[in-house]
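Quick one - inputs below.
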Amino acid sequence: MNVLVINCGSSSLKFQLINSDTEAVLAKGLCERIGIDGRLTYQPAGGEKEVNELAMPTHTEAIQFVIDALTNEKTGVVKSLDEIGAVGHRLVHGGEKFASSVVITEEVKKAVEECNDLAPLHNPANLIGVNACEKLMPGTPMVAVFDTAFHQTMPEKAYMYGLPYEYYEKYKVRRYGFHGTSHSFVSKRAAELVGVPYDQTKTIVCHLGNGASVSAVLNGKSVDTSMGLTPLEGLVMGTRSGDIDPAILEFIAKKENLDIEGLMNMLNKKSGVFGLSNNLSSDFRDLLEASEAGNGPAKIAIEVFCYRVAKYVGAYVAAMNGVDNIVFTAGIGENSVPVREKVCSYFGYLGVTIDKEANAKRGEEIVISTPDSKVKVLVIPTNEELAIARETVALI
Ligand code: ADP
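Output:
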């Protein structure tokens, strides 16, 4: 069966058409500037990438262009919509309502809407994508795969904040965690690669991309993760601060005359390695290059990033009373040799030793620890689209 995987944001929409039998990507692309003007990037497998400026006043036009591209006589990959068996939607926040993926019904949409407060930038946009697909592909089953669902197995002690309990009762203020599809996919794959049943492993996944999070996966279940109520908590990220002393907010607000919006903008967009590097870049390729050329702030940004990752891994070793596998994934985790080396340099106490030659590889599935290392360290490219396609097929 062919599954259309949709990741819909407020002004953009990423898609992949995946054949679930062969797990091959038949075509992929991106709609951008929806509601502004509109641009479709489309690439069939083995074919040329096309970019077309197309008017997309709403997501409905955007999805219509995606369907047109997929069914185009010359560059399309299917003859008609009948060859698309299901749609898998990435939804960001399922709150406490969704601990797994679900087939989308009116009731499900209502429940997702009730979580909008928790992800005001993402959930409404995700739902717009669902509605547009329903309109254009009536009768095609749709599945929702939540970023938060995998972490719903966390125990109370991991998800409760040291805040007045009434905020949990009234507003469901708690840790939810994100990147769940990736943490689940990668931890499962790690167990397969090391040949140990998933429900008998202690794995720590370091998902290091522009957004970054670490999770502790004990016997196949997430028991803790670094992102919180929102994706702002935890690691130092591309432009997000991660953990800080909350009192800094009052201090900076007074000094810089900032309101809540100004503070949130600073924490989400101007901080992280971007802010630390004195606004040089949020991209690790730039930072590593600058650091090698002797740029002080770039060097500090990399040091702080790696140290924070190492501290979270240490915390999760404690949470699980040990660890069997440490896995690196996402843009930085899959590609940055020096970041992996630096993070692992903190794990001597765990008996981790890294094979430098293996660690020099990029973007491929590989064990980078030596055979005698007490803990296995792996690089596993994440594939959230494939994970969504698998979930979708499993549910319908
Ligand atoms: P997201 O999905 O959160 O946007 P990705 O997982 O795509 O992020 O990761 C993007 C980041 O990966 C980039 O910002 C960049 O820092 C990093 N990255 C990609 N390729 C490399 C590379 N070869 N070396 C170092 N970092 C890289």
